[in-house]
Each structure stands twice: as C-alpha cells, then as structure tokens.
Write a structure and sequence with these properties.
With 457 residues, the protein is an alpha/beta fold. The chain contains 15 helices and 15 strands.
C-alpha cells in the first residue's frame, strides 16, 4: 500500500456463489458473508481498528468509557472489541432496534440508553446528540464515532476492497452495498475503481432513505419511515461522495425481508434485512445483465439479530409483510394469474435505447407498449402511439434516446395483490401492471391476462 498498514487483522469473509435464488439469471451472483465476522456484522474490523488507533495515540487507556450511538450492530462490534480489553461501553440506540440486539448488548456488559426513533437530526433527543452530550458530561469518556470515523472508510478501502478484488479474481463487474453512513461504499469504490473504473458501484437503501435523492439531485429529501435496520440514512453522511457511486436503488421493507427469508430456505444464508435488501436489488438488476457480468453482494448483517422480527411469521403478518404461500380459491392474486400464463423474461427498454431500437423491439415481440427499466427499477414506459405522435412532430427523433420521451411507469404490485387491486390499477389509465417476484424479476400483467384468469376460476 506504500505506507504501513495499521490493519493487521485477517478479516477475509467467505464469498459464495448462489446457484438457487440466482438460477434464473445469466450473471454469476456472489454473496460475501460479512455477517460471519466475530460480531455478526461488517463492523468488527472497524471497531478493532478504531480501538487500536486510539490506544496507539494514547487517546484511550483501559478503564475508560467508550461512547457511541448505534443501530445495534456497530455497538455489538464495539463491545466485543472493547470489553475484553478493559473498557466500559456506553451506547445510545433508537428504540426500534430488535430485541436480540438489545439482549446481546446487555449480555456483553454494555450500558444502553434508548432514544425515540422518530427524533430528527438536531433534536436534543436524537441518538447522535444524546451520545455527544454524554461524552461531554462524563469523565474519562471517549467518543468512538464509528459511523463517521475516517478509519471506517479506510478499513473498507484497505482491507475489504482488496479482499473482494482477490476473491473475484479481479472479475467483479457490479458491487451492491447496503448504505448506512456511506463509509463502506465510499471506501470500496475508491479502491475498486482504481483497479477497474468500469466496475459499477450500486448502493442499496430502504424507501424513505435520503441517498437516492442526494445522488439524483444533490438535495436532501425528507426522510421517511422504514422498518429495516442497519441500512439507510435519515441525514447525509460526511463520507458521501456522489462521484464514486454509479447508482442508488431503493428496496421496500417487504421486498427485503422476504428476500432474506428466501435466502435462508434456498441457500442456507442466514442474513438480516439489510443483506436481503442488497440481494433483492442485485437479483432485480441481474435479470437485465448478460453472462459476462460478475455480481458481488455484501451480506452485512446476521439473521440471528432478527428472530423476533423478520423471521417471525406473526410479526411479519402484523406489519403486512408476510408473503402468502397460497391464496384462497375465491381470491385470485397476481401470483395465481402468473401461474395461468406462459412465463417469459420481461421485455423492457433501457433508458439508453433509441426510439428506433424500442420500436423494433415492439415489432419483433408483437407488443404495443414497453416498460423502461434501469437496473431492474421501472422508471417509465413507452407505447406505439407515443412513438407515432413523436415522429409526426419530428421525424428525426428515431435516433433519440427513449429516456427523453418516456411516459409514466407502469404501477408495481406484489405477487399477493388481488385481482380487484390489479383491476383498479389498470383502470387508472395504465396499460399494464408490473409484478415484483421474490427473486427480483419483474413480470407484466395486462387486462387480457386478468380476463383469462377469471375464465379459469
């Protein structure tokens, strides 16, 4: 690395190829199991490095109190790294963290202060402000600030990134990273893009997080509410660097949780919701990539911390996230309708396709409208009538990109959506409805599909 590397620990997390959940896509999809680190999270090497550096700098000595705010996993890593060395651990956490993480922190001997999850940045009750206040009022206290510590980015640039490069034999083309503070994705991007500038770095966040808005417009949008933990941001991180990130995609709570459950059943990968979100986004994108792509997905949290939540059927049902195994005979769902029709890969246009290319796709597949999809996410649609009206006004537009002429995207529904819900969507001037499958694929349903399903009832 040119300078002495302070990270002497061996942190090589296993990387496994997924053959079942990714069996329908052409690219190879690999999961890097960060949750197999000692703390069940990717924060273990970060916590170790922070304590090592602080001890080397004489900033801390055994007996002092290490203070931080945490969503749980970073605090567990800090406690595991610090308690055996003789440090006290004081953590401020939002009250929505899982019961298992809270119990683990108590078992480790950490002192936990709960704050309201809805406290916004700048409010006195916000966990960041409470942690900073505690440091200022306690003797012999040290603020580790794991989420915004420069060592957090450095670990991933000097350790995690090179390991991924070596494990993939330098063939990784797409990296999907759950985004919380921005330290991991920034560190990985800095290293990997030096090796190959064409590697696509895709951040994944929940619906309601702020990073997609930051990437698209540079502005901080109003944060929303989400159930996912260890992923997403309510305010921008100091590590955020839009120049290093190729895309930020959002995944719903339901999509993430069910993908994690599928990973456990299909691949014996026992990961948490942040990991499920990243895998769902990767599988959704992989449908639109060819066999030359090599996708790596970071599994950053352990499923063991969510047994009372996403791995609990009753909790999933209470929250409306539970995916039914089968529907009642008197209530046809999108999943039932897809079972009646012959399935084929979704025919979709990419934003960079020209109108001429899109029209040729319609002609070859005998369809009159197409969704426009970017990395598996519907961003618009286009129809024969729209192309015709464009050409009447400007016959030279055939070589223009379709992204400049898109109409509204088709509505997106879950496989559990009932036929009445689908029909309502189709009445809203939509010529089709896209169904998001558990493996990330999209399928299109039209009015004729609904009619055919009703005749089978």
């Amino acid at each position: 690395m040119g300078q002495q590397n302070i990270f002497s620990m061996e942190t090589l997390s296993p990387m496994v190829e997924l053959s079942r959940v990714a069996g329908h896509v052409q690219p190879a999809v690999f999961a890097r199991l960060e949750y197999l680190n000692p703390s069940g999270t990717h924060y273990w090497p970060v916590a170790t490095a922070i304590i090592d550096r602080a001890e080397a700098d004489k900033s801390i000595t055994p007996g002092m109190t290490l203070v931080d705010w945490s969503y749980g996993s970073s605090g567990i890593a800090l406690a595991m790294a610090g308690v055996p060395r003789g440090y006290k651990i004081l953590l401020v956490v939002p009250d929505r963290i899982s019961r298992e993480k809270h119990q683990m922190l108590k078992a480790l001997g950490a002192e936990v202060v709960m704050t309201p999850s809805d406290a916004l940045p700048g409010e006195p009750r916000n966990c960041v402000n409470v942690a900073e206040s505690l440091v200022g009022n306690l003797q012999n206290a040290y603020f580790t600030n794991m989420y915004e510590n420069s060592l957090s980015r450095q670990v991933h640039e000097e350790v995690t990134g090179p390991e991924i490069w070596e494990q993939s034999d330098g063939e990784v083309t797409h990296l999907f990273v759950p985004v919380t503070s921005g330290a991991m994705i920034t560190g990985l991007a800095r290293m990997l893009k030096q090796k190959n500038p064409d590697i696509r770095i895709i951040g994944v966040e929940p619906e309601g997080s702020v990073y997609r808005g930051l990437l698209q417009s540079g502005a901080v949008s109003q944060a929303g509410v989400f159930e996912l933990e260890e992923i997403g941001g309510l305010w921008p991180s100091g590590f955020w660097d839009a120049s290093l990130v190729d895309d930020i995609v959002q995944v719903s709570d339901q999509e993430a949780f069910n993908c994690s459950r599928d990973l456990l059943r299909s691949e014996a990968v026992f990961a948490g919701g942040a990991s499920g979100a990243a895998m769902f986004a990767a599988l959704r994108a992989a449908v639109h990539l060819d066999a030359s792509a090599r996708i790596v997905v970071l599994m950053t949290d352990s499923g063991g911390y969510y047994l009372s939540k996403m791995y609990n059927d009753e909790w999933m049902k209470q929250k409306g996230f539970f995916r039914k195994a089968a529907s009642q005979k008197d209530e046809i769902t999108a999943e039932d309708i897809l079972g009646y029709k012959t399935r084929r890969d979704l025919i979709a246009a990419m934003p960079e396709n020209t109108l001429s290319e899109v029209f040729e796709m319609m002609r070859q597949h005998d369809v009159s409208q197409l969704p426009v999809v970017s990395y598996g996410t519907p961003i618009g649609s286009v129809s024969e009538n729209k192309i015709l009206s464009i050409l009447i006004e400007n016959d030279e537009a055939m070589n223009s990109k379709v992204v400049g002429y898109m109409e509204q995207p088709f509505p997106v529904c879950q496989p559990s959506a009932t036929i009445s819900e689908l029909s309502e969507k189709l009445q809203e001037n939509a010529s089709g409805v896209l169904i998001t499958l558990s493996d990330g694929r999209l399928q299109l349903l039209t009015k004729s599909d609904l009619i055919e399903a009703l005749t089978h009832k």
